[in-house]
Amino acid sequence: MTEWDIKKLQILRTLRDRGTVTATAEALLMTPSAVSQQLTNLAKQLGVRLLEAQGRRVRLTDAAHLVLRHAELVFAQLERADAELDGYLRGEAGQVRVAAFSTSVPALLVPAVRQLRTAHPGLDVRIREAEAAEAYELLTAGEVDLALSLAAHAPSARDPKYSRLPLLADPLDVALPAGHPLADAPGLRLADLAAEPWIFGGSGPWSEITTAACEAAGFVPEQAHSASGWTAILAMVEAGLGIALVPRMASADRRGGTGVVMRVLSADQPRRHVVAAVRSGAEEGPAVARVLAALRQAAAARETVQQN
After folding, report:
1. CB 201 within 8 A of CB 131
2. Of 75, 102, 134, 202, which has the fewest CB atoms closer than 10 Å, so is most exposed?
């Protein structure tokens, strides 16, 4: 029977994901020569060629992709084994580390943790604020157990390394200065704002979400100012410097700011989709499952509030 070495298979998977031997070595805290040696030994153990030269780099062979396709099932089963063992050893106790983007922390994660503290006081949830893409890097690296992020920046639902759970379709409302001519216009559409100066981040998730929503409405937004924090964005809107799309999760608990009018877009309401993700198989662990259930409850409560 062929000898399968889990550690070497993990190195091969990391090379597939990172693209180069150098990047693989950095991710695994190894030297490039050690990575190459381990993969050479794995090829000998399996009796197939795993890598081939492509210019100054290497690429995985079809045999390597075949090996990894089966290895993903092994990795998922090992995650399930770890999860079940954790549940057996810890029972109601345990620690779940969560990486979450900024607006999801007060809107979803804090209510979920409050509920868990009452229902499962031995469960320790550790929160780490992270940008959407960074949350998945932390999950892949094993630094967190759950990533709370946006579907647009999540790995594909077909990626076998992750299990994804849709949580919430968060509507995007438009923030206008109180004296804006369209501040109280009936049936406001996003296309009505095509000629306005816009405020959004220069790069990253919110830049992409804003431009995608506007392009879907038939125009490319003119970026007048760049900011990533909602406090700064809404202050500029209040000062009449431009308008902005704002997720309802960010604006629902806003205090003050009487100079800003939040308008619901009538016919072409854009939304951002919030998802939770864990490494495949880990969702069966009792501690992670409880956190996911609490997040689902918090998301359902948030949607009920948004609809009223």
Report:
1. no
2. 202
